[in-house]
């Protein structure tokens, strides 16, 4: 499975990082708290919130944007009516980099989500060090260890989107009392996408939990459909990369989605 391959390679990278900078080193450095932006509050907009993603490549598409400039993209997002930015930092399959987060934070006022595959506590503290305001915690990766990772993130002042794809994963997330739930419309086992995944799972989500729909959102009508279900926010990556690639305007998509 693709997910297994991603985690296998990521584990090797994390072990190398630990040699260069230990967890003790990180803990000493993060005492000097960086500018923290409230990611959770950004998802409470009156209209549906949009998390715009900076994403050079994906396992299913390969390189999406050849002329990739994360700072330029960040500035486009800053000028658009979006609420938060997601930054891919996974290197092998998404061609991301940890340094992108700080670069993006310097040119935008939006809260930043670190989008990566977290399976080691080290990565949560590292996320804080590199300037993230929130992390992605994937139940398909963490399983029953989710609560431990979620509690660490909250303890050090990071928000977390807890990502699920099916009913079993949703149960694990709700048992951890998460406050932001991400429903991934993409199956990480085979990368098939279906927006109906959000429609199926949202009925089990209690009120008070902020809900983010992820993957497969291609048109303003998709955003309006998800809004009609009661979704609080959408995370859009590949669609925005394609708009930029084709010389379109992100704000046009946003205006049509929100009706503003």
List keywords for this structure.
about 260 residues, TIM Barrel, 8-stranded parallel beta barrel, two-stranded antiparallel sheet, about 45% helix, about 15% strand
Draw up the topology in text.
Elements: H1 2-20, H2 23-29, H3 39-42, E1 49-54, E2 57-58, E3 62-63, H4 70-79, E4 84-88, H5 99-107, E5 112-115, H6 121-129, E6 134-138, H7 139-142, H8 146-155, E7 159-164, H9 167-175, E8 180-184, H10 196-201, E9 210-214, H11 220-229, E10 233-236, H12 238-245, H13 250-258
Parallel strand pairs: 1-4, 1-10, 4-5, 5-6, 6-7, 7-8, 8-9, 9-10
Antiparallel strand pairs: 2-3
Helix pairs in contact: 2-6, 4-5, 11-13
Describe the structure.
InterPro entries: Aldolase_TIM, Indole-3-glycerol_P_synth, Indole-3-glycerol_P_synth_dom, Indole-3-GlycerolPSynthase_CS, RibuloseP-bd_barrel. One of its GO terms (biological process) is L-tryptophan biosynthetic process. One of its GO terms (molecular function) is indole-3-glycerol-phosphate synthase activity. This is Indole-3-glycerol phosphate synthase. Residues 3-242 form the Indole-3-glycerol phosphate synthase domain. There is one protein chain. Helix 4 (70-79) packs parallel to helix 5 (99-107). Strand 2 (57-58) and strand 3 form a beta hairpin. The chain has 13 helices and ten strands. The termini are far apart. It is globular and about 50 Å long. It is 44% helix and 17% strand. The longest helix is centred in the first third of the chain and has 19 residues, at 2-20. The chain has an eight-stranded parallel β-barrel, surrounded by seven helices. It has a two-stranded antiparallel ribbon with strand order 2-3. It has one domain: Alpha-Beta Barrel (TIM Barrel), CATH 3.20.20. The protein has 260 residues and is of the alpha/beta class. It has helices at residues 2-20, 23-29, 39-42, 70-79, 99-107, 121-129, 139-142, 146-155, 167-175, 196-201, 220-229, 238-245, 250-258, and strands at residues 49-54, 57-58, 62-63, 84-88, 112-115, 134-138, 159-164, 180-184, 210-214, 233-236.
């Amino acid at each position: 499975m693709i997910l297994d391959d991603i985690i296998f390679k990521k584990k090797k990278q994390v072990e190398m990082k630990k040699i260069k900078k230990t967890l003790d080193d990180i803990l000493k450095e993060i005492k000097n708290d960086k500018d923290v932006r409230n990611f959770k509050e950004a998802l409470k907009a009156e209209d549906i919130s949009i998390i715009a993603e900076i994403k050079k490549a994906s396992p299913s598409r390969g390189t999406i944007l050849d002329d990739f400039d994360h700072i330029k993209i960040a500035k486009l997002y800053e000028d658009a009516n979006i609420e938060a930015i997601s930054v891919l930092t996974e290197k092998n399959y998404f061609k991301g980099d940890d340094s992108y987060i700080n670069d993006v934070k310097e040119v935008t006022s939006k809260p930043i989500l670190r989008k990566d595959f977290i399976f080691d506590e080290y990565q949560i503290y590292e996320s804080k060090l590199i300037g993230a305001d929130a992390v992605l915690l994937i139940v398909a990766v963490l399983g029953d260890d989710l609560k431990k990772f979620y509690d660490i993130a909250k303890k050090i002042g990071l928000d977390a989107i807890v990502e699920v794809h099916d009913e079993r994963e949703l149960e694990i997330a709700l048992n951890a009392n998460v406050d932001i739930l991400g429903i991934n419309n993409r199956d990480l086992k085979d990368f098939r996408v279906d927006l109906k995944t959000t429609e199926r799972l949202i009925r089990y989500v209690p009120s008070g939990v902020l809900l983010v729909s992820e993957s497969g959102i291609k048109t303003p009508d998709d955003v309006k459909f998800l809004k009609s279900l009661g979704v609080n926010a959408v995370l859009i990556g590949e669609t925005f990369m394609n708009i930029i690639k084709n010389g379109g305007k992100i704000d046009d998509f946003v205006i049509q989605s929100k009706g503003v």
